[in-house]
Amino acid sequence: MDAPDELVIVPHTHWDREWYEPHDVFRLRLVHMVDRLIGTLEQNPGYRFTLDGQAAAIDDYLEIRPEQRGRVVAAIERGQLAVGPFLILLDEFLCDGETIVRNLELGLRSSRRLGPEMRVGYLPDMFGHAAQMPQLLRGFGLRDAALWRGVPGRIDRHAFAWTAPDGSTVRTEYLLDGYGNALDLFALPGQLGALVADYGRSVASWYGSDPILGMLGTDHSAPPADLMPLVEAANAADGGIGLTVDTIEGYVRTVAPEWAAGDDEALADLPVVAGELRSHTRGNLLPGVFSIRTNLKQAMTDAERRLSTAERLDAAFGADDHRAFFDTAWYRLVESTAHDSVTGCGVDATAVEVEGRLATAGHVARGVILRTMERLAASVAPDRHVVANPTGFARRAHVEIRLHDPERLELGDGVQLLEALPEVLGDEQLATAELPKLLNRIHGRELFGQLINAWRFTDDGLRFEVAEAPVGDFDLAAFTEELEHRIASDASGERLWRVEIIADPRRTAVVGVDVGGIGVASLDPATARATDDPVTVSARSLSNRGLTATIDERGAVRIEAADGTVLADALRLVDEGDRGDSYNYGPVDPATAVTDPTSVEVTVLESGPIRGRILVRRRYAVPVALDPVDRDRRAAASVDLTVDTVLELREGEPMLRVRMDFVNPAADHRLRVLVPTGVGALPGSSAAGQYAVTERGRVGEGGSVGEFPLPTYPVARFVHAGRASLIVTKHSEYEIVDDPQSGVDAIALTLVRAVGMMSVNVHPLRDEPAGAEFAVPGAQYLGTAVATEFAILPSASGWAESGAARWAELVRVEPEVARGTRGGPAVVGGVAGAGGAAEAAELPTAPVVEVAGDVVLESLRTTTDAAGRAVVEARFVNYRAEAQVLRAAASGLWDRTDLAGDVVERDVDLATTVIGASRIETFRQRVADTPPDHG
């Protein structure tokens, strides 16, 4: 058998940007490490160093050491320092597919500011790998990957061909002993040659005649400055395995030169692995990170969704250049996807910082959305509203608006009145000397967020009549003159005046309106029409033509679909003890699980016909924590857990929307909700996320050592099993479980998992610690409000036939609505008269980009082409395993591009072009040959 005669040492660091310390603590260490590294590289021309595949590390360094930029650039140009291609080493399952695209975009851009980037998708420590990663890498021209965790046990070679669901393939270097396998070779002084020989014999079957890969580095490690002399001495003293030093890119180019040269047949002899990598055989996947700090997962989803909405509306209806704002927001979001950031498996301070960055990204998105909606609203009269649909699908949009004096209005049957709003906005006693402060409160004609339509002095005071919409004119000068006259008439300044601010009678209302894909509609409450599928509500049920939901005395729900599908005993809760940590769930005595409520209250909130809502309030007595002496048991003392579940059914929708709210009162537990599948003994599930639908079994692959492979999985869009699709609105964890009470299998969705340790040394399902034993009291979520929204789509057919991908997009991306302001002050963020008015937009008469089939429009944005010009880009994903015609309507000429923006096909007809099975396809609208736009 051939044996390797060379070992390639790859010096590197795995730099967790934040983890058991927050970002800036680790950055201080990073800066000092890179300071030393630059000197080491300059003193040793043969030294090579791989900076962890993430450009954020060098961004962080140069922000503190901008004067060192020249030395960094020189090291990159000499081939000694490898940076990029990612911005951050992400968790691939806790962000959306579009976020992975932006990660590579930002990482390549940041790297190229300094020099050529590393052309390997280096993924050393992610907790498993998403199915579409090969297609995403190939979309940016990257043909290689290198990774550790998740590789199935059947792989017995150091490289394999990894294929995405569409067939895209990357050569993947398997870090079979982890990303620090060469550390032990340097552990004993003077023994390098012998240790290399021993290691070579132990891995010879993996490498054959190929050079062995020796990864020299670990978490936050400093580069060994004396590496080159040690290597030279070992090579001079030993005639066995020779040692060389290179980057990870240099290694893969050496062992696969034909593949590197572009020969697509060069992988024919390698084993093939298709789809996601989630085997526990040789590396822990730590799946408990999907369910810890669930509010952090919600913050990630919210930021992604808001940024996507802002980009779509801005590209379709905006008039300003917001590209720099979006770059900033996406940077903040992407840096939060790191595998020790959004995962929540760091200390509390890290989680707080991550949530703050995600909030910042969301604020940028909100600003753009308000600006765009302000522009649209300026073209609509105040008695109407403008509704914008950010999805590519035509939809029945259900929006909430405020109506003034609705009793006197003629309303269409598509308007459902809700609660009345307060009419008294201010009622106070002011002395005459205090009256001048009223002028400080009035801005133009705005007062307390409303517009002044009338005012009058009475015998005992002053009364303002205000509303959102202007009626007539308001003369501020006349009011000021009268106010000064009243003040002058009271020389003592002590007279008391009753000052009232009274709003018109107002009620919120929910209104249904039809809107095209990436389209807008002018909503007139007087002409709003209902559909022929109204919602009816009784004391314990909601129904429309497609679905009936009935609540039993325990608070569980029976869901019946028009096709005969029945999901019985839905939405029951199961509360279990958890003796684990932020990385892995740790089961305790199952007899201590709590499943039955102590009380149930049912209240009708809305009675249809546009939208029906029922509140189910359930109280449970749950153990306060684990037993402090025996952590295999739960404490005898209990606390009250109140869970409010709002069931919602809308006209024309075949699914039940659900919102669950509670304030967590207990420690050391996991709370899950069960959604029955209507079928027993299922082989597995289909879960959508990261631009693919992945088929998963009921049993995970484990090994003889490591962690027990619990079949808990991530889901980002929907999970389908049996006759149910569960559509989620945040990155979540689920499991298919046998449910003896309903007699069928159920989807168990985790609502919260509360623990107090980052990692525990002794874990019932894991052989070794995942980190240090740091206390993380914030992860217990004591007193923390948790809200979870999802929808249940019952269907006797599969997820594709029931349109789950389409419905998931419509549930996740809600329409935007704003009151018209034509002829009056702008209303920004619900505040009348706030901000400078944007130029009015002419409402388009046709949808901007509308998809008639099931292919999902995932991104629409204004980006920059190679010539520096602003160009509109649309990205679509076919989640199905068979090709589909795109069936998209959009104006202009379009070219198909790769993910990097390079044109691969010109003059594409979006209506007739075919999107291959599980394909991600990007198109850019042709722009006129104009000078570059540097705005």
Key descriptive features of the protein:
alpha+beta, five-stranded mixed beta sheet, globular, 15 helices, nine-stranded antiparallel beta sheet, 31% strand, 935 residues, 21% helix
Account of the protein in words:
With 935 residues, the chain is α+β, with helices and mostly antiparallel strands. It is built from 15 helices and 51 strands. Helix 4 packs across helix 11 and helix 11 runs antiparallel to helix 12 (348-377). The longest helix has 30 residues, at 348-377. The protein starts with 5 loop residues before the first strand and ends in a 10-residue tail after the last strand. The model is unreliable at 930-935 (pLDDT under 50).
Report the total helices: 15
Count of β-strands: 51
Rg (C-alpha, Å): 31 Å
Strand order of the largest sheet: 27-28-29-30-39-36-35-32-33
Mean pLDDT: 95
Compact overview of the structure:
The chain has 935 residues and is of the alpha+beta class. The chain is built from 15 helices and 51 strands.
Topology (elements, then pairings):
Layout lengths: L5 E6 L11 H21 L5 E2 L5 H9 L4 H9 L3 E2 L14 H16 L8 E3 L9 H7 L4 E4 L11 E5 L5 E6 L17 H16 L4 E5 L10 H11 L4 E4 L2 H8 L1 H4 L11 E3 L19 H24 L5 H13 L12 H30 L7 E5 L5 E10 L10 E7 L2 E8 L5 H5 L4 E2 L2 E8 L3 E7 L8 H13 L7 E8 L2 E10 L3 E5 L12 E2 L3 E3 L3 E5 L5 E5 L4 E5 L1 E6 L21 E9 L3 E13 L14 E13 L5 E8 L5 E8 L7 E6 L2 E6 L15 E3 L2 E4 L2 E5 L3 E8 L4 E11 L30 E10 L9 H9 L3 E4 L7 E2 L2 E2 L16 E3 L4 E9 L5 E8 L6 E2 L2 E3 L3 E4 L5 E6 L5 E2 L4 E6 L10
Parallel strand pairs: 1-8, 1-9, 2-3, 4-5, 5-7, 6-10, 17-18
Antiparallel strand pairs: 6-7, 11-20, 11-40, 12-19, 13-19, 14-18, 15-16, 16-17, 21-22, 22-23, 23-24, 24-25, 26-31, 27-28, 28-29, 29-30, 30-39, 31-38, 32-33, 32-35, 34-37, 35-36, 36-39, 37-38, 41-42, 43-47, 44-45, 45-51, 46-50, 48-49, 48-51
Helix pairs in contact: 1-2, 4-11, 10-11, 10-12, 11-12
